[in-house]
Amino acid sequence: MARPEIVTGEIYHVYNRGVEKRNVFLDDDDHFRFIFSLYECNDAREVVMRDRIGERLLRNSKFSIGSTYGKLSPRPDARKQLVDILAFCLMPNHYHLVLRQSRPNGIALFMKKVSNSYTGYFNGKHTRKGMGALFQGRYKLVHVGADQLLHLAEYVFSNPIKIIEPEWKSGKVRNYKKAINFLNNYKWSSYLDCIGIKNFPSVTQRDFLHLSFAGTANIGQGQSAIKKSIENWIKGQV
Fold first, then answer.
1. Three-state secondary structure call for residue 94
2. How far is Cα 56 from Cα 131, in angstroms, rounded to an integer?
3. Domains plus CATH for the chain?
4. I need a surface site. Which of 65, 101, 113, 234 has the fewest CB within 10 A?
5. Which of 106, 78, 100 is nearest to 153 (CA)?
C-alpha cells in the first residue's frame, strides 16, 4: 500500500514495532533516551546527540530518573521544529506518536533522525553492533481526520493497560480501578502531562488536544476533559 501524501498542518498516527516483535525498551534509560530523542531531534538543524547530551549535563546539576542525559527542559536556543508532537506512548516492543507536520517533509526528516539516533544508541548499549535495523522496516503512518483524533488519543493513552491486562482490547479489563491507577503512574507516555501531572512537558504541544476534548482552550478544563474521557473509555472495556 502506498504511503499517503503527508500534508503540512495535518495530523498523523505514526507507529512501529521492534524487529521480530522484540522489546526495544529494556530499562528506564532506554525509555528516557527515546523521549530525549523526540525532543532533540525535532529540529530542522543538524543534531549531534552526544553534543546535545553534553550541553545538558553542563547546564543542569540535577539528573532525570537516574539517566545520564541531564534534566529534560527547553533549550535556551529556539529550535526549528519539524513537527508538533501532540501525544506519544512507549510500550515494551513498540511506540505510538501523534504528529502534526510543521514544515514540508518534517515528519520524514524527524522520524529518520529519531530512528537513527535511537537505533545507534540501542545497538551500542545492548551489544547489537552490526545487527542493523531495530524496528520493523519503515515506520507506519496513517492520516488522522478531525473525527478520528479523540478516539486515537483514547487508544494511544490507554495502550499501557495491556501490560497488566493483556486482553483489554477484547473488552476484558478485569479490574477498572487497578487499570486507572496503573495508567496514572505510567511515565512513558504524554498522558500525565495532558492531565496536568508534570512528566515530560517540553516534548509535547498539548493545547490542540485540550481544545479537541473540551471545546475550549482553557488548560484546566482540557486536562479534566481528557482524564474523564480516558477513564470512561477504559470503563467501557470492563
1. strand
2. 30
3. 1-144 (3.30.70.1290), 145-238 (no CATH)
4. 65
5. 100
For the segment 108-160, what is each residue's pLDDT rounded down to a tens digit?
Answer: 999 999 999 999 999 888 887 666 789 998 999 999 998 899 999 999 999 99
Dist. CA 210–CA 223, nearest whole Å:
6
- Burial profile 15-29: b = 16 or more Cβ within 10 angstroms, e = fewer: bbbbeeeeebbeeeb
Q: What is the pLDDT of residue 234?
A: 82
CA 125 → CA 96, 101, 105, distances in Å?
23, 31, 30
* Cell numbers representing residue 99 in the block: 504528529
What is the rounded CA–CA span in Å between residue 139 and residue 155? 18
Contact by Cβ (8 Å): 100, 208 = yes
- Cell numbers 525532543 correspond to 39
C-alpha cell at 22: 522484540
Q: In whole angstroms, give the CA distance from residue 186 to residue 200.
A: 12
Grouping H, G, I as helix, E, B as strand and the rest as coil, residue 12 is: strand
pLDDT at 21: 85
CA distance 139 to 217: 32
Percent composition of the chain: helix, strand, coil (DSSP 3-state, to 5): 45, 15, 45
